[in-house]
Amino acid sequence: MATSGNVRIGVLRGRENSFPDAFIAKVNSLEKGVSAEFVQLGGTKLNEPIPYRVILDRMSHEVPYYAVYLKMAALQGCYCINNTFWRSADDKFFGYAAAEKLGIAEPKTVVLPNRAYIDDVTAESLRNLWPTDFSMYLEHVGAPCIMKPAFGGGWKNVHKIHSLDELLHHYNESGTLTMMLQEFISWDTYIRVPTIGRRYARAIRYDPAPGGLGGYNQDYEILPRALRDKAEELSLRYNQALGYDMNALEFAVKDGRFYGIDLTNYTPDLDYRSLKDAHFPWAVEKMASFAIEKALSKEKQPVAPEWKSLLLG
Given CA atoms 51, 56, 59, 60 in this order, what sign does their dihedral have? Predict the structure, then answer.
């Protein structure tokens, strides 16, 4: 339950417990005149008053009703973390294109036509599409390469491709997913950077692996200071341009060059089991501080993505 504050922060959560629970406890313990609680929904009337100044969104990417609710909340002046209007335009291929505009190096990347479509899409619907030259695109990115969805996360449907036969096999298994091919960077150092509020960044040495087998190094100082500072600077530049208040960016560093590998994580992993003692308190503290600031500022969130002026001039 919320404490006695007049200004309220709501939290939408899914299966996770550690971060939402710790965030609510932290906000309520600070006694800033702001209270936090879990949002309770069961249907929403048109323009029904929203009782929250801020909503921390950890689940609308998988529950469409939550996304509909958040858009109406934003129209009432509620500040949503992250901006749900931005998520509607969010895909990883766009993220790579935006990164290059911002001076961040990207591996060679190709987005492919879908293998399958919903039932109402027929051959006549696809008359703009010509046959895909898979050999050409594999030659362009090189083998081995990575095949992964343009919309996705959590290592779902990610494959390392060594040959044209493997590419065709996994493409044929991809169904309605929009898949990309990406050059594989044989990195010297891999870094993941949780970022909060477009002002806080924490570059952590990371071991990438599927199935929850990867992990954050618990020694924040293990990264050379120059690499850490550069990763944090690039992360803040990216988030400030695109409007992410909550994100986790991944960089592969090869011969001193930073390549953006995963840049658009609308609901980044902030679970204690991932961050552990070295990094979890930082994430909770920074998110609580940022959310309280937004709750007290009465700042309205723009409903349109903020990248237009920054990327297009």
Answer: positive
User: d(Cα 165, Cα 273) in Å, to the nearest integer?
Assistant: 37
For the cut 80, the answer to whether the pLDDT of residue 116 exceeds it is yes
Task: Give the residue among 58, 52, 71 at the shortest CA–CA distance from 295.
Answer: 52
Contact predicate 54/290, CB 8 Å: no
Q: Are the C-beta atoms of 286 and 197 separated by less than 8 Å?
A: yes
Of the two residues 33 and 153, the one the predictor is more confident about is: 33
In this prediction, residues 111-115 reach a mean pLDDT of: 97
**Structure confidence at residue 299 as a pLDDT band (50, 70, 90):** confident
Q: How confident is the model at residue 302 (pLDDT cuts 50, 70, 90)?
A: low
Going from the C-alpha of 162 to that of each of 12, 49, 137, 152, the distances in angstroms are 41, 54, 13, 22
Q: What is the pTM of this model?
A: 0.92
Residue 12 to residues 28, 40, 121, 169, 311, Cα–Cα distance (Å) = 17, 8, 34, 38, 31
DSSP state of 123: G
- Where are the alpha helices (H) located in 154-224, listed in sequence order? 164-172
Tell me how far apart the 2 most distant CA atoms of the chain are, in Å.
63
Q: Which two tokens stand for residue 284?
A: 């909770």
- Cα–Cα distance between 14 and 8 in angstroms, integer? 20
In the 8-state DSSP scheme, what is residue 32? S
Question: What are the two backbone dihedrals, phi and then psi, of residue 282, each rounded to the nearest 5 degrees?
Answer: -60, -50
